[in-house]
Amino acid sequence: MIRIKATQSNWTEVRRTLDMLSLDPARRRRLLMRLGRMVVAQGQRNIKEQKTVDGAQFAPRSRRSDKRGPMLKRLMRSKWAKVRMINGFASEVFFLRGVGYVARKHQEGGDEEYRRERHAKLFAADEQTPGRAYFGRKCSERQATELVRCGFRDRESGRRRPVKWIMENVTVGQAVEYLKATKESWVVKVPARPFLGISEAQRRRMIDVLYAGIDAKFRAKDHGDLLG
């Protein structure tokens, strides 16, 4: 499981503030968990508006991508993004299952290595054998998607083609031959799209508001005025 810190702010300062306010452990936990949920809400808004923590627009998708529409729109769903306590003095946002890998990849950016054998495994042995019925069958959606990620180009025009076009025009045999001709491995640069985090000013304001209502019922959506 891969974690992403809820905020880059100095939690030592938060600890001093909480100590000064003399909160009992139960209320301290309540305040920090609510603060974490507000960070999740801010991340959801950032993704909805396709902006980073600093307010800049997300870096665009690679030209190889066949995807359209908003990026990361499913990432901050409540079933994936969770909040938990750490040592009784901090909370953090984390992601379940493999979603954390995707979140970290876009949060921090970096290089991602692709290997040819990974894509070759998309085809069964029969599909890679000339003369078999499968060899002349059109590519499945999953196979076509992986070809797009490999930078597939139409031989006649030299143009990159979308998934739908590949599914309609490229056979399994052609796909297998294309993959055999690709490099053993290659690196794809993923630009950073930091969507998760809050500013220092936000953190201070959230703590003030959440502390004032520490004994009241809480719903993050009722505090939209605290979001950037």
Structural notes for this entry:
A three-stranded antiparallel beta sheet has the order 1-3-2. A two-stranded antiparallel sheet has the order 4-5. It is 39% helix and 11% strand. Helix 5 (141-149) crosses helix 6 (163-169). The protein contains eight helices and five strands. The chain starts with a strand and ends in a 16-residue tail after the last helix. It is elongated, with a radius of gyration of 23 Å. It has 228 residues and is α+β, with helices and mostly antiparallel strands. The longest helix has 24 residues, at 25-48. The protein folds into two domains: 3-109 and 193-226, no CATH class; 114-189, no CATH class. Strand 2 and strand 3 form a beta hairpin.
In short:
Helices cover 39% and strands 11% of the residues. It has 228 residues and is an alpha+beta fold. Helix 2 crosses helix 8 (200-212).
Blueprint (SSEs and pairs):
Blueprint: E1 3-4, H1 11-21, H2 25-48, E2 81-86, E3 90-95, H3 99-108, E4 110-115, H4 116-120, H5 141-149, H6 163-169, H7 172-181, E5 185-190, H8 200-212
Antiparallel strand pairs: 1-3, 2-3, 4-5
Helix pairs in contact: 2-8, 5-6
